[in-house]
Amino acid sequence: MENKAHAFLAGLFTIGLVIFIGLAVMWFNRDQTVRVPYDVVTRSTVNGLNPQAAVKYRGLDVGKVDSIRFDDKVPGQIVVRVLVDKDAPITTTTYGRLAYQGVTGLAYVQFDDRGFDQSNSSKRTPNPTHLETSAKAPARIRMEAGFLDELDKRGDQMLSKLDQTLNSLSIMF
Q1: Higher-confidence residue: 111 or 104?
Q2: How many DSSP H helices and E strands does the chain contain?
Q3: How far is CA 73 from CA 43, 93, 153, 163, in A?
Q4: How far apart (Å, rounded) are the C-alpha atoms in residues 34 and 67?
Q5: Spacing of C-alpha 127 from chain mean position
Q6: Considering 83, 86, 135, 162, which has the largest number of Cβ atoms within 10 A of its Cβ?
Q7: Residue partners of 40: CB distance under 8 A and separation at least 6
Q8: Which of residues 5 and 71 earns the better pLDDT score?
């Protein structure tokens, strides 16, 4: 009788310990960051971009991709809903680009801001204002073509020019 009581208490203790560890893991993994939604709109492809992908502002993690869908109002336009830290400096001059993580093909949204461009002071906006957004009416941010999109667009032109150059060299020699 005494052995059964000890076994029961040991089993009860083990179950309680497992539940406590599970709750502790959930408690420490919860994200308390307050995030606000923005819609990033583009007509380009979003290859490699998935929900829960990172959103970075000049290389710093500021949020996550929430969803990717087609725009109901503009045919052919893609809307990427991102959740960004409320303290991130998203302004009216902020724009997005699709960036890639190494050679994996996984993409993330990279934000930058023309208002803070120090390299060309003639294009600099003096005091860009914070871009207001809300859950009911998320602000829209334009996504510009990234390096690979530009290379894709100009690839045919570059190949035809290279072909012309090689034909000219062939004729010359």
Answers
A1: 111
A2: 2, 7
A3: 13, 23, 26, 42
A4: 18
A5: 25
A6: 83
A7: 79, 80, 81, 82, 96, 109, 140, 141, 142, 143
A8: 71
Question: How are the residues of the chain apportioned to helix, strand and coil, as percentages rounded to the nearest 5?
Answer: 35, 30, 35
Cβ neighbours for 88, distance < 8 A, ≥ 6 positions apart? 57, 62, 63, 111
What CA–CA distance (Å, rounded) separates 48 from 67?
13
Q: Are 82 and 65 within 8 A, CB to CB?
A: yes
Residues 136-155: tens digit of each pLDDT: 888 889 988 766 667 777 77
- Reported in sequence order, the residue ranges of 86-137 that DSSP labels E, i.e. its strands, are 94-100, 107-113
Q: What CA–CA distance (Å, rounded) separates 58 from 52?
A: 18
Q: Which amino acid is at 49?
A: L
The angle at the Cα of 129, spanning 143 to 139, to the nearest 5 degrees, equals: 45
Q: Is the torsion defined by CA of 45, 103, 151, 57 positive or negative?
A: positive
